[in-house]
Amino acid sequence: MWVYKLLEDAGIKLDAQGSNIKEIDDALKTASKAGTGNPGYPEYCGVVKDYVIVIEDKPVVANHVRYDENGVVSKKVKDIQQFAVNGAVFYAQHIARLTSYCKIFAIAVSGDEKRHRISPIYVDETEYYRELDDVEGFISFNESNIDEYYIHEVLKEDTDAERETAEILKDASQLHDYLRNYGNIKDEEKPLIVSGILLALREEKYGGFKISDLTGDKITTDGEKIYLAIDANLKRSSVSPEVKKDKILHQFNIIKESPKLNEINPKLSKTPLKFFTEFLDDKLYRTFKYMKSSEDILGRFYGEFMSYSGGSGQSLGIILTPRHITDLFCELVELKPTDYVFDPCCGTGGFLVAALHHMIEQAEDENQKKDIRKKHLHGIEIRPDMFTVATTNMILRGDGRSNLVNDDFLLQNASKLQLKQCNIGFMNPPYSQGSKNDPDMYEIAFIEHLLDSLVIEGKCVVIVPQSSVTGKTKEERSIRRNILKHHTLEGVITLNTDTFYGVGVNPVIAVFTTGIPHAKNKKCKFIDFKDDGYKVAPHIGLVETESAKDIKNIK
What we know:
The chain is α/β, with parallel strands linked by helices. The protein has helices spanning 2-10, 22-28, 77-82, 84-98, 146-154, 160-183, 190-201, 222-236, 242-251, 253-257, 259-262, 272-290, 297-308, 323-332, 350-362, 366-375, 384-396, 414-418, 443-453, 466-470, 474-486; strands at 15-16, 44-48, 51-58, 103-111, 116-124, 129-131, 341-343, 377-381, 403-406, 424-427, 459-465, 488-495, 507-513, 525-529, 534-537, 541-544. It has 3 domains: 2-154, no CATH class; 189-290; 318-554, Vaccinia Virus protein VP39 (Rossmann fold). It is globular, with a radius of gyration of 27 Å. It is 41% helix and 16% strand. The longest helix is centred in the first third of the chain and has 24 residues, at 160-183. The two termini are 18 Å apart.
């Protein structure tokens, strides 16, 4: 029944003790483990897309697998009968021989919910089998994930998403060099130039902007043409209120005011702005137009620019959240299209991009999608440049109406914020900004204010340094006690120190239920997730390792 629940959680429907697919059921009528030619049936069997899944389970881990003297899964009858891996491989190979199916995942399960092993084995029509890394559940094998799992784990190739991200990071590296060499641009201005050009490119389809119009004219400069296109696109995107549009436009002044960007460069035979626009149109804008994922592309560019410039943003308390963590947050709260999401330190908008992606994927119709974009996403960001990048991010995702505000979250009245009726809070607050003289800037103070800003019985997920949860100082411990008087801590997940691109932070994820005091007998879940299958590669950022686990299995 535990295995049945795992399948149910993963959204996979398999048949127990047989198969409703005649070809497979006929094969199982001669699949006796004893080799007698009589019927034999695995615990579960079925088809997901064009993959057969066979599950064999045993009640104790001691009966997980038996190898022969050559280190090969034993084919002895007693071992096939007694061990989960041996039985699963036996059934998979039998089905491969007697049916037209040639891609089979044999999954061996042993133990129970507290102590267990789940081992996938890939079997094909040649009866060759490949033992894959253990997993914690079956989410990798549902209809949405099984192709990507097959490509990554069996074929050992990069998935589309990984290839796409790798190309983006390569392009960011090139663009960083171009901005430095041809534009003499400050680090914090680089993402703004990228954002502004991308907004201008959106005006091409309306005839209000053409790359060919960037001629280096000294009267109406290339920067002024791009600036006018940005203005038009902000109006077209219905960015409101007007003060928000004005703040964003002000950030783009550098595009029209920088002489070096607007003068024809002898090496390029064009202005650097035209060169950057052509580059971004070819390398990035088309990705944005057709990308249907939760990747925060502009956030990745921002992070890459900081890293290539010899910094990570940590000195400013800026630590951008990678995609596998923003996706995990959505999974932890089982985000639904009816939820209202609030990120009070939204940075480049990574959590909001992920939330938008997860909610839109589940939306029933276009009206619900429109409602999500207009009403369900709320964010605050104190830095004007990052606020501009976040707003651009949402516009490029087809949403200029998200409720983003350029302000200081800690100065907002929690009771007023509750009026937004947000029931989901996501946050990666500024790090290492608090002190005994300024306790309001401790990470845990941000957590308290966010919890107080959500409706009762909402869900809040935050990622912070481990020390902020354990409490280094008297002030932090006092805030922690106050939090537990009003809210429930559901669990804490320890993460890889490389989660934030090697900046030396030991991060944890904390999950809360809001508005309900933490009961004295309430036990929290503590999960060690330090080996999340990611590591930092120089000038690339986070990359998956051979031991990569499906991030969703943390559920």
